[in-house]
Each structure stands twice: as C-alpha cells, then as structure tokens.
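Ticket #4471: structure export looks truncated?
Reporter: QA, pipeline team
Priority: medium

Steps to reproduce: submit the single chain below to the structure queue and open the exported record.
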Amino acid sequence: MEAGSLSKAGVLIARGEAQPETVPNEPVGIVSYDPTKRPARLVMPKRPSSSEERRREQDERIAAQMDLAKRIVG
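Actual output as written to the record:
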C-alpha cells in the first residue's frame, strides 16, 4: 500500500468506533415457559421420497412452461 492510504477495514473500524454507545430498551414484560405444564405437540412431516419430489418438481416446471406458452401465444 502507498504511504498515507487507508485500508477499507481500517475505515470501517474507525466508523464503528465513532458510533455512540448502544443502550437497550427497557423490557416490557417477562415470558416464562415451563415444558412440564404444557408438553410439546410436534409432528414432523414425512419427507417425500426422492422420486415423488422429483416428479412434483417436474410437474411444477411443466406447469410454469405451459403458463408461459399460453401468455406468449395469447
């Protein structure tokens, strides 16, 4: 680097150091959670098989191509 030139990182660091102190907002309330009082009800979705997923993606591509062709043709 040439004498007297600043690096981009140095400029960003200087800009960050020049910023005023950050003061967080006062909390409005408290949220508490006790999993023993309300157990989780989570059902994981079944992942489609790779062939089903490929078929669905292919159907979506074909539908998009058909829509485009209809718009072009009128």
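Status: closed, not a bug. The export was complete when the record was re-opened. Leaving a note from the reviewer for reference: Residues 50-73 form the longest helix (24 residues).
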